[in-house]
Amino acid sequence: MKIAYVNLSKNKVKIEDVKEFEAYIGGKGVATKLLFNVPPRIDAFHPENAVIFGIGPLNGIKLSGSSRMTCVFKSPLTNGYGESQCGGFIGYEMKKTGIDIIYIFGKAEKPAYLVVEDSNVEIKDATFLWGKDCYETEEILKKEVGGEVLSIGQAGENLVRFACITHRKGRQFGRCGAGAVMGAKMLKAVVFRGGRQIEVAYLEKLEEFREWLNGMIKEKLQAMKKYGTPNILPLVNEAGVLPTKYWQEGSFDKFEGIVEEMQRYVKRNSSCYGCIVACGKITRIDDVEVEGPEYETLFSFGSLCYNDDLKTIVKANDLCDRYGMDTISAGNVIAFLMACSEKGKMRFDEFDIEFGNSDSIINLIQKIAFRDGIGNVLAEGVKRAAKIFNVSDAVHVKGLEPPGYDPRGLYGTALSYLTSPRGACHMRAVAHRPNLVGLLDRTSPNGQAAMVKDLEDFYCVIDSLVFCRFLCLPVIGMYWDDIARLYKIVTGKEIKVEELKRIGERIFDLTMKFNIREGVENEKLPLIFFKPLKHYREFVIKREDLEKMLIEYYELRRM
Contact at 8 Å (CB) between 97 and 89? Predict the structure, then answer.
């Protein structure tokens, strides 16, 4: 395993061949272990914080789901464990460079970018790129350098705490503020340009596995293939757990049929390297073309803001991708402001800020990216904004704004929001899917703890390999046995399922220990989730049920 240590303060690079991290597989596991090199309790914008990019054993092969990369850092939103994953072509390209992990720390004296090529990393002047958006930056670097590009936009440069890192104008390291950490380091972009051949232990068996996997995709992922992530929206809406009007309601009648409406504007599909799912949808309305909107963007700028204007959602998607901002957090802070306005807790003279006002969504995104006026407060995220506004209605866990699943009707999701090391997150356990399809009673505490714990450990392994969740979705996707088989095919090494489970548990424990070291507590759920959510039936989280799940969960984790 090759690890590149990039010290931006000293303008130096050191590359090491190491074997000591094999117990953590690669990707997330190794990056999380390395994160403990960051000095305890420092500010997330301190030069000694690190941005760690990593790939794993399954990257680089031509197989659906194999082109992923992980990013680990101390989060400026939560002050604790931060991570995100990104698809596209970046994981494939990094694998070909011969570098497995890049540990970036320090702060450049002037804007910089990195070129990673042939087991080497070069630090270059990015002054000419500073101030440009993600699209512009990528276009320039692909023309001048080639390869594949990760970049930040104006949101990252201005330290918006939920700034993301963008790849190929629509793929992101989206959550927890990695783009802001790069901005604090004056690091504008990272370019990967590889020429190394990828080795596979058993090529014929990989071909057999690919044939089996493609059959599974055709059988079980047709909706994902046709509609992308928005395919889940009707199910969530019908189940009464679609966050609406800033968590006040659980369904949005104006969104009925919106997935089919989107199909009118989809011009083509987009896929990651080697993937036949092609879940990305390139949408064009008038003069705006984006990859998406994904389900989370439809919820955050749609139902959460009580906005049914698809054109505005697409425009908001485009601006966030250009400026480099997480659409989940951006939609949450805007909807939070709308809720404050509705309740008369705040007055705004610049323009109308009320639910359903699509113009205000666009205006606020621009203000947030440049920290202009009220945008300077919203750029801090809902937890800090609520303190500044002196209100108590902000919805978050550990400082991270929740995704598009109301936990009042999804008990597994409620538990996973609390136990996720990065805060309110649907991807650490993907518990909403088995809850929604009835694998467990979604409003009962029974069995949720064991399910969440198992899925958390499983996805720690997946993110260390690094592989795509959409090929490993609960109930319908690959699971422990399949992953063990694929690992042996690619590496030639056998890891039994029980050992894989121990590795997943080991990695998850590391993420929890990092939060403990940083003083991040497992906060309680926001108060609104203990108030009834009315749909065709009433949903609410009972405190005794939540306590039961937590007790069972920590007994399983032996903590």
Answer: no
Domain with 362 in it: 224-389
Number of structural domains found in the chain: 3
Q: What angle do CA 227, 230, 235 make, to 5 degrees?
A: 110
Rounded to whole angstroms, the Cα distance separating 539 from 541 reads 7
Cis ω before 18 (30° cut-off from 0): no
- Is the same domain home to 138 and 284? no
Q: Which two tokens stand for residue 57?
A: 């054993």
How does strand 187-192 pair with strand 112-117? parallel
Q: Is residue 207 part of a domain?
A: no
DSSP letter string over 341-390? HHTTS---SSS---TT-HHHHHHHHHHHHTT-TTHHHHTT-HHHHHHHHT
* 10-residue mean pLDDT series, the chain (559 residues): 98 95 96 98 98 98 97 98 98 98 98 96 98 98 98 99 98 98 99 96 98 97 96 96 97 94 96 97 97 98 98 98 98 97 76 90 97 97 96 94 98 97 96 96 98 98 98 97 98 97 98 97 89 90 97 92
pLDDT at 114: 98
Residues 383 and 415 in one domain: no
167 Rama class: left (phi>0) / alpha (psi -120 to 50) / beta: beta
Strand pairing partners for 397? 400
Give residues with Cβ within 8 angstroms of 437, minimum separation 6: 475
317 and 355, same domain (yes or no) = yes
Strand partners, 14: 5
Residue 122 contacts by C-beta under 8 Å, 6 or more apart in sequence? 13, 114, 115
In the chain, helix, strand, coil percent, each to 5? 45, 15, 40
Q: Which of 359, 389, 419 is the last residue of a domain?
A: 389
Sequence length of the chain is: 559
Predicted local confidence at residue 349, as pLDDT: 64
Is this prediction's pTM over 0.90? yes
Segments of 65-209 assigned E as strands: 69-74, 81-86, 101-105, 112-117, 120-125, 148-151, 165-167, 171-173, 187-192
Say whether both 367 and 426 belong to one domain: no
Residue 498 contacts residue 452 (beta carbons within 8 Å): no
What tokens does 361 get? 């969504």
pLDDT at 523: 73
Residue of 77, 131, 159, 189 whose CA lies nearest to 368: 159
In this structure, the answer to whether residues 184 and 230 fall within a common structural domain is no
Query: Would you give the DSSP letter of residue 288?
Result: E
Check: CB of residue 556 under 8 Å from CB of residue 422. no
101 close to 52: Cβ distance less than 8 angstroms:
yes
